[in-house]
Amino acid sequence: MRVFVTGGTGTIGSAVVRELIARSHRVFALARSDEAAGRLAGWGAIPVGGDMTAPEQWTATLPDLDAFVHAACDFSPQMETIERRLLDLLLPALASQPRDIRFVYTGGCWLFGATGEAIATEETPFRPLPAFAWMIAHLQRVLAAPEIHGIVIHPAMVYEPAGGVFSRFAREASEARAVRVVASEAVRWPLVHSEDLAVLYALGLAHAPAGSSYIGAAIEGWQVGRIARAFAKRSGGPQEPAIISPDAIAAELGDWAKGYALDQRLSGAKARHDLGWRPKHLDPEAEIAALA
Q: Quick check: 38 pLDDT over 80?
C-alpha cells in the first residue's frame, strides 16, 4: 500500500513507519524540519514537508494513497483546535482520492479514565481525562465518516526500554536523582512496546473492518513503582522513588500530564483475537535491566 503517516518521527509514528517499510509498503511521512526529513529518508520513507498546525499547506497536494495513519499529537493548550482544523481539511482531501482510503486514527488509553480493578475493553464507556475529552468527538467523526474506511487504535502507555513514557525515568535515574512517580507507586499503567504497537497498526491497516476500534495494550497493568525502581537499581542512584502530586506534574508539563496518575487496566484481547496480534515485549523490567 501507499501509506501517509503523520507523527512519523515520534515514539509511535517512527515505529509505524519502520514497520510498514519492513512490510514493503511505500510510506510518505510528514516532516516539519530538515532534521525530521533526514531521519525519515534514512528509514526509507518519502518525506513530505509540512506541519499539522498548518494542514492547508500539504493536504491539498497529497500523493495518491491507499491509507493514512494519524499518529501525531500536539500537546499544547491549542491541541483541540489544531486537531479539528486538521480533520476539517484532511477528511475532504482523502475523500477526493481515487480510491477508498483506510484511515487509522490514534485515540488513547486516558480516554477510559481510572479503571481500578476493572479491565477496560473497547465496549467500556469513556470517562476521559478532561484535557483529552475533545478527542472522543473527533474519533467518532472518523469512525462515522462515509468517505473513508475509519479505524481507531487506542494505544496503552507506549514505551521503549529507555524511551517513550519511560524517558523521564531514564533521564532522572541517569542524573542520580530520585525517580519521580506521580500519585503513588501502586498506580498501574497498561503498557505496550512501540514495536508491538506498530505491528498492530500494520495489522489494522490490512485487516480491520471499517468503524472498528482496538485497544493496543500488551500488558494490562504494571505498577509504575516497579518501573521507577528498575531504573534506580540499574543506575545505582536513590532507590526510593519520589512521589509527586498530579497537580505538580501538571504545573510542569500541562493539565494533560495528570493522566500519569490514572490507575488503569486495559485489555488487548480483541486485537489478539480479531487481528492475530501477538505482542512480544511482555517484561519491561527485564528490558530495563538489559540496557547497555
A: yes
Question: At 248, is the secondary structure helix, strand, or coil?
Answer: helix
Q: CB of 139 within 8 A of CB of 85?
A: no
Condensed to tens digits (0 to 9), the pLDDT of residues 201-259 reads 999 999 999 999 999 999 999 999 999 999 999 999 999 999 999 999 999 999 999 99
Q: Could you give the 3-state DSSP secondary structure of residue 247?
A: helix
Mean pLDDT, residues 153-160 taken together: 98
DSSP assignments along 81-136, one per residue: HHHHHHHHHHHHHHHTSSSPEEEEEE--GGGG---TTS-B-TTSPP---GGGTHHH
Q: Cα 110–20–39 angle (5° rounding)?
A: 85
Considering only CA atoms, which of 217, 215, 261 is closest in space to residue 107?
A: 215
Strands (E) across the chain are located at: 2-6, 26-31, 46-49, 67-70, 101-106, 148-155, 157-160, 163-164, 180-182, 188-193, 212-216, 219-223, 242-244
Cα angle 59, 142, 95; round to 5: 45
The rounded mean pLDDT for the chain is 96
CA 26 – CA 4 distance, rounded (Å): 9
Task: Report the alpha-carbon angle 221-259-53, nearest 5.
Answer: 120
Q: What is the spatial distance between Cα 126 and Cα 3, in angstroms, rounded to a whole number?
A: 30
In angstroms, how far is CA 238 from the centroid of its own chain? 30
For residue 73, the model assigns a pLDDT of: 85
Could you tell me which residues are beta bridge partners of residue 3?
27, 67
Percent of all residues in the chain with a pLDDT value above 70, rounded to a whole number: 100
